[in-house]
Write the structure tokens for this entry.
Amino acid sequence: MKTEFSKLLFRAVLLSLVIGMLGSASGVAEGQPTKKPKLGYDAWMTAKLVASQQVLTHLTMGDFEKMEESARRMQFVHYLEQWLRKEEFKNQSGYMGQLHAFEFATKELVRHAEDRDMDGALKSFQLVTESCVRCHQLIRDPVE
Ligand code: HEC
């Protein structure tokens, strides 16, 4: 029951995010040549977003076991994504820096969840979200 509810909740949150993104994207694209969306990113987006949202839920509820599970899922999706796309970014030091920041933060999150350390887990999650945002900033504004 509980898990069904949280699944529904994640879907609702995800859906509203996607709708929000679509809304803002179409606003920006008006009057400009439309950039064709690349295929396959939806799956990454869903997996990464859902896993990080799950971590937040488990942090809030103090469920360390599930927190660890979701953090590991986040790590896994991220590793897979990097492995598939490593050629594109390997020479960009800023990107690699954020990549390492993310890897470090998720590893710390798993460690603190194992230790049932709420302060540590919360701090690591903040670092994770920071690296999500920073890395995406870099992708949006690439340095020549
Ligand atoms: C080290 C860099 C890096 C980190 C850290 C990172 N991402 Fe990404 N993410 C990417 C790349 C690269 C893509 C593919 C986007 C592209 O190439 O346009 C992507 C795609 C996405 C997308 C699809 C939308 C888009 O911009 O294409 C979402 C949403 C997303 N990531 C969320 C997250 C979340 C949530 C986190 C943290 C839990 C995170 N990302 C951490 C690099 C990163």
Q: What stands out?
A: The CA atoms of residues 77 and 100 lie 15 Å apart. The radius of gyration is 17 Å. The pocket of heme C is lined by residues 41, 44-45, 48-49, 52, 74, 95, 98-99, 102, 128, 131-132, 135-136, 139 (CB under 6 Å).
